[in-house]
Each structure stands twice: as structure tokens, then as C-alpha cells.
Amino acid sequence: MGRSGTATVTTPPINQWKTLDKDLKRIGRIEEAAQFVAKPLVAPGLSIAFIVLAALAAGVLMGAQPGAWIVIGAAAIGAYMALNIGANDVANNMGPAVGANALTLGGALLIAAIFETSGALLAGGDVVKTVSTGILAPDAVPDAAHFVWAMMSALLASALWLHLATWMGAPVSTTHSIVGGVVGAGIAAAGFAAVNWGAIGKIAASWVISPVMGGLIAAAFLALIKAKVIYVEDKIAAARRWVPGLIGIMTGAFATYLAIKGLKRIIHVEPFSAVMIGLVLGLAAWALAVPLVRRQSRDMENRKKSLKKLFTLPLVVSAALLSFAHGANDVANAVGPLAAIVHAVEAGELADNVTVPLWVMVVGALGISVGLMLFGPRLIQLVGSEITKLNAMRAFCVALSAAITVIVASWLGLPVSSTHIAVGGVFGVGFYREWHSERRSRMLGLQKGKPVPPEERSRRLLVRRAHMTTVAAAWVITVPASALLSGLLFLMLNALAG
Predict the structure, then answer these.
(1) Where do transmembrane segments lie in this chain (predicted)?
(2) Nearest to 89 by CA among 341, 311, 364, 363
């Protein structure tokens, strides 16, 4: 009120910043759009940066030696191969644990990166055959130059095939991919007689043996858990009796597996000694697990959901150990041909076995971890949750199956793929659940006088058939596809070099 008693009318302030606010909003939308567009380019950009760094490191280490540019190119291709191994193959180790919610995706990526790198650097093969599995003998190739182009073609072809398989969402065997690449380049360089076709026949047989064996063993353990623990009246008492034994079997299997397949660089262990190591550590793990499971199950509700907690920690440990063993073994798929190229360039001669330089091992180890972090989540989710629904018990059976199958196959002299075993284990668990669910439904239907109609049984399918078809097709064509691509690349590189 003014002094005269009349009211003073105040005019609301005019928004003098209206135009500026509109411009800022437009800029904000442009920034959001730019981030949206740039996000898919981050992973490829980081991958290219890693490949360039690997090539630069090779250039610095090689200096002005004759043929240094060949090693630089091979280092770039080896880094690209390692990235694709991490993107595709590691999903088989971590997928079940993520699908069972025992690990978050971020936790799985971190654990896998640590153990893959540790396995590659600590237990990676000190001496690697120049051609992975003896598919192509160096003396079958006319000279060192042809051998170098053959190894480079095989490495690039297998990396390109893995890249395509990852893009399609198909977990394939990196070992089979590199073998196919060596076969194709070997045929192009020295004819069909240069290839060990007996070894190729065994690999073709493993397309069936690996997934079937993995699936059967995983299904057998799931059947045991259902019969002895889940479908009994006192589930907690049954778990206290059986879970420590299963943990002991897991520990013994992984100890034997690592002794046979993953510790070659540290110490050579005979198969019998490896089994004894596994037996001793398995019994020790069982003795330790008895009081731990008893304490963990105290005050636990007598229902199926409670039992899953008892399998979570063993599942995480098994996933980590699988990653360690995978890094120790499959890093050779990236660094084996690269080491052969480095030796051929430096020594000017060919050899059946070559020592892998430390920098080559580092490129392979870091490449697998970088590829996993950048591109692994897609296949981890596919293996863990899109083929069939997994919980801690089912995923534990898959991991246990992977270790046992590799040991049995080693005794029988069968070339098996860890990828095929793990994915086969997931399918085996899913198909067993389908069979068991239909069997129980049929029994309940007979008891009630209401049989389950075919339409209802079809609706209850627990395995996605579309993924099974895609994966099986990718497995079958891995060797011929990488072989054909490798042969074409060899002819191109040889023509350019000539």
C-alpha cells in the first residue's frame, strides 16, 4: 500500500532469456543426439586403438630388422583375433553364472578379464606348435615366405569368421576356426596332401561328441540334484548331505582339469598325477564344505528357492576357474600363428615348435580381456538366459559338465571344444527340464484323468529352438567357412607379395 492508501500495481517481469533458453534446449538435444549416434562407435574405436597399439609395440620391438613390416601386420591381425576370442568364446564360461543371477554382468566381465589374463600369462603354453594342432607341417610348405603368408591368412580368416559369428549371435569354437584357417591356407599353399586329414576327421566328429557329452553329463547332475535334494520332503537335510559332495566333485574335477590343461608352463603333470591331485583336493573341499553348508543352511526355509543360495558361491568359483583355464589354452589360437610368423621372420627358417615371446603373450592376453569387456555382453546374455532359463543349480551342472567332459575326452584322445561342451551343457539342462516337466505333467494328468493335450505340451517347451538351429549351423560351417576365406586371402597376399 502506498502512503495515500492506494494499491501499487507491479508488472510481472518479462522473461528476457526466452530466446537463450530455446537455443540451449536445442544445443542440449543436439548433444543428446550426438551421444546416441557416437555410443555404438565407442567399442569399435577402442578396438582399433588396441590393434594400432599392438602394431606399434611390434614395430618398436622389431626395429629396423628385415621383414619388420610383416611382423607389424601380423601383430595387428593377432590383436584382432584376440579381441574376437574375448568377444565370442568367453561367454561360455560366464554366461551360465550371469543367467543364474549369481553374478552381475559387470562382475562377470571383471572376473573373466582378471582370470583370462592370469591364465594366459601365468599358465599359457611356453612352447606352442606353429600350426595349432599339427594340421599343417612346416616342411610341407615350399619356403618361409609361403609359410608366413599361410599363417597370416589363417589368422585373419579365423578372426573374420569369429567376428561374423559374434555379430550373428552364435558362440563358435575358436580352435575350430583357426584350424579351418590353417587348412584353407595349407591347401592353397601346398595342395591337399599337405593337410593331416585324419586330424580333420576327428575334429568333425567332435562337432557331435562335444555337445552331446556335455549335455548328457549336465543333465545327469541335474537329475541327481532333483531326485536327491529338490523332490524330497526335508530339502535342507538332503542339501547338507549332498551339496558338500557336489562341491568336492567340482573341486576335484577342476583341479584335475587345470593340472592337465592349464599348468603346462609352470609344471608338467602326468594324467595319473593330475587325477590324484584332483582326488586329494576334492576330498579336502568336501571336508571344508560340510560345516560351511551346515552353517549357511541354518534357519533356511524348507523350499526349492532357498537351495539356490547354496550353489551360488561354487558357481562363481567354477566360472572363474573356467576362465583361467580358457585363457591358458585358447590364447594359443591367437598367439600361436603370430609366434610362428615372428620366428620365421627373425630366424629365416621354419620349425615344428617355437617359443612364444613375452610381448606376443601380452598381446593375446590383453586382447582377449579387451574383446570381452567391449563385445562380450551380447553372447554372455545369449548363453546365460536366451537359450533356456538357468538358476544357480542348473548353471552349476553346466560348469561341472564342462570340466568333467574335457577330462574324459582327454583320456579318450578325443578333440573336443570347450565352447561346444558349455553350450551343449546348457541345451542338455534345458532338454532335461522339458522331458522332466512333461513327465510330471503326464503323471499328474493321469492321476486327475486329464491327459495333457499336444498343444499344451508344445507351449511348455523350455528351450528356444531358433537358437539351437543357429548355433548348430554355425558349428558345422566354421571349419569350411574359415578354410575357404583363408585360402582366398592366401592367394591375394601371395599375389601382392609376388
Answers:
(1) 41-62, 68-86, 98-124, 144-166, 178-200, 206-230, 242-260, 272-290, 310-328, 358-380, 392-412, 418-435, 466-493
(2) 364
- How far, rounded to the nearest angstrom, does the alpha carbon of residue 202 sit from its chain's CA centroid? 22
Q: What is the pLDDT of residue 38?
A: 47
Identify the CA nearest to 377 among candidates 23, 109, 8, 69.
109
pLDDT in tens, 320-376: 888 887 777 777 777 888 888 888 887 766 666 667 788 888 888 888 888 888 888
Q: Describe the chain by its helix, strand, coil percentages, rounded to 5.
A: 80, 0, 20
Residue 132 banded pLDDT, cuts 50, 70, 90: very low
Q: What is the pTM of this model?
A: 0.80
Q: How far is CA 175 from CA 97, 322, 441, in A?
A: 23, 16, 42
DSSP label of 414: -
Q: What distance in Å separates the CA atoms of residue 449 and residue 444, rounded to the nearest whole number? A: 8
Residue 320 CA from chain centroid, whole number: 12
**Phi, psi angles (nearest 5°) of residue 156:** -70, -40
Bridging pattern class, strands 353-355 and 127-129: antiparallel
Phi, psi (deg, nearest 5) at residue 15: -70, 100
